Amino acid sequence: MAWRAFGGLKAVWMDGELVPWEQAKVHVTVNALHYGTAVFEGIRGYSQNEEIYVFRLRDHLKRLVESAKIVMFNNPYTVEQLQDAVIKTIRANGYRSNVYIRPIIYAGENIMSLNARELPIRASIIVFPLEKFFDKTGLRVCVSSWRRLPDTSMPPRAKAAANYLNSILASTEAKMMGYDEALLLDHQGYVSEGAGENLFLVKNEVLATPPISSSILEGITRDTVIKMASDQGFRVVERQISRTELYTADELFFSGTAAEITPIVEVDGRRIGDGAAGPVTSKLSKLYHNIVRGLEPRYKEWLTPVYGSK
């Protein structure tokens, strides 16, 4: 569960222009390197019939711009400019396969300051091939000893690089204990989310997911699942979830741009359901993969074609 396959990339978008991959470098004095002063997005593009459909591109870029606003960056880029840059970057690399897109807005070099308003702001976009993030059909997870940061300390609504130290500590701990991923509780002791994923619980065919107030990132895929499930006739509730509810759930699954919809088959050594992906999870996962490839016309407004948009 790591990305190392960056070979073959041709071009990176940096500060308004495409540059060769080998020249896409930053200086050691970049403020973001020292203080984590960056906001970013993870976006997926899916291949179908020689086209690539970028899933909910505008929603992701809107969240990116809003994240920059929350951390008080003087961000010069609009959603429209960033959307155009994403399309150009994919085309410049000539991709026709599934891709992962990483736009990042970050504080630049030659200033060591904790005042976000005076930092020079830079932006980059990289794109690389990605098929599956998790290489398992079901995950074993544990509840972490690390708590999710509350909104009063670090804003989870912002997809900020600094927030991810919390996730790194939790995920590393889980893997050292032999698990695939971590689940974090919020400051009140209720379930928050995974280290890099939102959580859904299924009980008696009713879906529950932790609310925004449980210090979660407002996931784009989470929103997609809520809408998909509701359209399929399932009841979906956003509410606080206690740790022990996880153990007696019929089904559990993660949602996320990288994770997509990934079943959880064990929590803290307790088997979930029959130890495999449940029927609700499987149904939603199948629908999700049809939607992102343009096979469900009712959701076509979520898709941005890369080559059809010439």
For this entry, give a set of tags:
single chain; 310 residues; alpha+beta; D-amino Acid Aminotransferase, Chain A, domain 1; D-amino Acid Aminotransferase, Chain A, domain 2; 2 domains; 9-stranded mixed beta sheet; 8-stranded antiparallel beta sheet; 25% helix; globular
Gyration radius, rounded: 19 Å
User: In this structure, how is the largest beta sheet organized?
Assistant: 9 strands, mixed
Order of helices and strands: EEHEEEHHEEEHEEEEHEHEEEHE
CATH architecture of the largest domain: Alpha-Beta Barrel
Compute the number of strand runs: 17
Characterization of the model:
With 310 residues, the chain is α+β, with helices and mostly antiparallel strands. It has helices spanning 31-35, 57-70, 79-93, 164-176, 220-231, 243-247, 279-292; strands at residues 11-14, 17-20, 38-40, 43-48, 51-55, 99-107, 121-129, 139-147, 181-185, 191-194, 198-203, 206-209, 235-238, 251-256, 260-267, 270-271, 303-305. It has two domains: 11-129, Aminotransferase class 4, branched-chain amino acid transferase, N-terminal domain (D-amino Acid Aminotransferase, Chain A, domain 1), CATH 3.30.470.10; 139-292, D-amino Acid Aminotransferase, Chain A, domain 2. It is 25% helix and 29% strand. The strands form two sheets. Strands 8, 9, 10, 11, 12, 13, 14, 15 and 16 form a nine-stranded mixed β-sheet that branches. The radius of gyration is 19 Å and the shape is globular.
